Amino acid sequence: MSQREQAIAAPAIFVHPTADVSPDAVLGPGSQVWNGAKVREGAVLGERCRIGHGVYIDTRVTLGDGVKIQNGVSVYEGATIADGVFVGPHATFTNDLHPRAIDPDGTPRDEWQIVPTRVEHGASIGAGAVIVCGVTIGRWAMVGAGAVVTRDVPEQALVVGVPAQVAGYACRCGRSATSRERDGWRCDACPATV
């Protein structure tokens, strides 16, 4: 396939006129950045990402393919979000465990101590959740709305509360796995075994 044919076959990137996307950011084919969103320099968005109204994507944040970030989300430097992750409205990712505006002597603190955070393939984060930096959210895990995640979330775990605690397990289809079988949790909505 020629370069021209590849360009025609590649889905178009959409950036709303009110979005602020740095020329030093990388947007994958088919990605959409909606009104009022900001994507900073060095950020990398995979293919077919959807970035909602008022989202903030900080410097050097990496999003995989097919990531959906709803309105008002803040994703700060140090976050890596894998393919197929859903982030609900107004969720926040932090990036410094000991933030201060000034040092003890009163001088402004301009440097952050970035602590990496990772969200693995297929995970979902509910509306208003806070992800404290330094954690890994496992594959297909589900973070409940309003939860505050302060430690790693196991693969396919459903976590809720402040601080977030494991309350069950989530099927890959998104439903809770509620039936305990000898070989693991079973989803009541589909034939999958968690």
What do these coordinates show?
There is one protein chain. The chain has 194 residues and is mainly beta. It has one domain: Hexapeptide repeat proteins (UDP N-Acetylglucosamine Acyltransferase, domain 1, 3 Solenoid). It is built from 1 helix and 24 strands. The longest helix has 7 residues. The chain is globular and about 55 Å long. The chain starts with a helix and ends in a 7-residue tail after the last strand.
Topology:
Blueprint (H helix, E strand, L loop, with lengths): L2 H7 L4 E2 L4 E2 L4 E2 L4 E2 L4 E2 L4 E2 L4 E2 L4 E2 L4 E2 L4 E2 L4 E2 L3 E3 L4 E2 L4 E2 L23 E3 L4 E2 L4 E2 L4 E2 L4 E2 L4 E2 L7 E4 L4 E6 L5 E6 L2 E4 L7
Parallel strand pairs: 1-4, 2-5, 3-6, 4-7, 5-8, 6-9, 7-10, 8-11, 9-12, 10-13, 11-14, 12-15, 13-16, 14-17, 15-18, 16-19, 17-20, 19-21
Antiparallel strand pairs: 21-22, 22-23, 23-24
